Amino acid sequence: MKPVIFALALGCATSVSAQQAADAVAPEAATQGTFAAMSPEIAASFAAKADRRPVEASNWMVAAANPWAVQAGADVLARGGTAADALVAVQAMLGLVEPQSSGLGGGAFLVYYDAASGSLTTLDGRETAPLAATPRLFQDEDGEPLGFFDAVVGGLSVGTPGTPALMQEAHERWGSLLWADLLAPAIDLAEQGFPVSPRLAGLVAADQERLARFETTASYFLPGGAPIAVGDTLINPDYADTLREMATGGAAAFYTGSIAADIVQTVQNAPGNPGVLSTLDLSIYAVKERAPVCVEYRAHDVCGMGPPSSGALTVGQILGMLQPYDLSAGPNDATVRRLIGDASRLAFADRGRYMADSDYVPVPVAGLVAPEYLASRAALLDGDMALRDVAPGNPEFDHALNWADDASLELPSTSHFVIVDTQGNVASMTTTIENAFGSRLMVRGFLLNNELTDFSFRSHVDGVPIANRVEPGKRPRSSMAPTIVMQDGAPVLAIGSPGGSRIIGYVAQSIIAHLDWGMDVQQAVSVPHAVNRFGTYDLEEGTAAERLSDPLTALGFEVGTRALTSGLHAISIGPSLLGGADPRREGIALGQ
Ligand code: GLU
């Protein structure tokens, strides 16, 4: 099978056919079409794409993890749709072409700037624990935590999906085009078929054993027992049918009726690992509007998703602690890395202790990012060496808190996209089914999430409860950090990433790269990663970050080297729009 160069044809503003996308398109075509510019995805390594330039446009822009999804969003924006319209189209398409990362069976967080009202809103479309779940969901008879994949694969880990409700909520609030028209391109492509991308093929090959456990999943990803290969045309008529039902019936068609019944049946009868999700859980699911969490940094307001995500709080804590320090020496400077690394360790210590679904446990949201509190934590960084001891602090709160530190493991998959429309509305959305391929259960053409494993498997330590323990109806703590950076009340940067709890480090570093190191959005998402989550200081394998190993070890950090597969997508908003797509994934930015 010859490798396919996965790029988009840009000759017209209409949908791209499967054949067009499967055919290699010379990058020069990018500047000749209706859309001014793009960075085409090719099946190349990070190194080969590391010197990408940002995409520039003046009217609208979309950046996402897959060119088909970007094209679907671009088509909507080109015909005057809003960022909310485009996000529906992008999400519907991602669920088809990047099914391992997000989709109808998952959850998402959206940060949205509405230009007409000048307001920033965050919507929580996170999955919920079934009402029949208990804090012991992921424990054996002795109360010991299950092995991670023993919990993930099957029905036990499946939370009530939130993404369909979030798509509809965003569209109802800020959309202008017809809902059904926004789903149509994904319906068409699901029926025509799309070429399997290198990333999807690679992930299927690596996960064969788990995917093979369930018949429906196996027959889609491992037809005839062999993994789908790069360039194969994959059709998904079940997904087309599901979207068609949603096109006429809205999200209600998903949360009630036969789709909901099928989801529940699949979860409750998962061989070997049945779950407790019920039709009641689906029928009562609701998107929640939350107050954005904003932290001041370098005369900007960095705003994002509060609990149940730890994203904005932890990114905000890191930046808030770094505020008094000069980071201008750049990414290769060991002192700069010491400061970022230790600020991250301190923030992660608080995250493990205090952050969870604030509808269930009191979370000191304001106290955790209060300037006085951050200044007191920042003062701890004022030495020459890595901190010897790192512990949670004592943020101010009007409620006695006694939580034990959590133990939850988050492995990376997920997707992030950003959109700016012609009216200046901005969407920054991180969307997930948690692990790659989620629970591995597939129904009606989409995969079901394993989001519940974002809860702490342990419920208590020495009799002290853990804030992020499982509880009925609760939303598992997330690290997703969809972000909009504001200056003088106007958005200047939209950014986010997948990457499990490393999302926090990826997003914080990119914001620092943009604001402190003077990098454009493409450079900011491409800069080699160094992330610390309160353990080893992880340096990105095969990049300049590896050279930090000796100096950081000398400063007292425990250092490791590994692949750090972020999927950052960013748009900066100034006199023109600049888009950046992470060279580590298959995404592009596209604008006009
Ligand atoms: N489930 C994770 C979270 O919500 C995201 C997983 C990922 O990014 O890979 O934080």
UniProtKB/TrEMBL annotation:
Question: Species name for this entry?
Answer: Roseobacter denitrificans (strain ATCC 33942 / OCh 114)
* Active site (record annotation): T414 (nucleophile)
| Molecular function via GO | glutathione hydrolase activity; leukotriene C4 gamma-glutamyl transferase activity
**PTM comment:** Cleaved by autocatalysis into a large and a small subunit.
On whether Signal is a keyword of this UniProt record, the answer is yes
Family recorded in the similarity comment: Belongs to the gamma-glutamyltransferase family.
Q: Which NCBIfam families match?
A: g_glut_trans
Annotated keywords: Acyltransferase, Glutathione biosynthesis, Hydrolase, Signal, Transferase, Zymogen
This protein is called Glutathione hydrolase proenzyme
User: What EC number(s) does its UniProt record assign?
Assistant: 2.3.2.2, 3.4.19.13
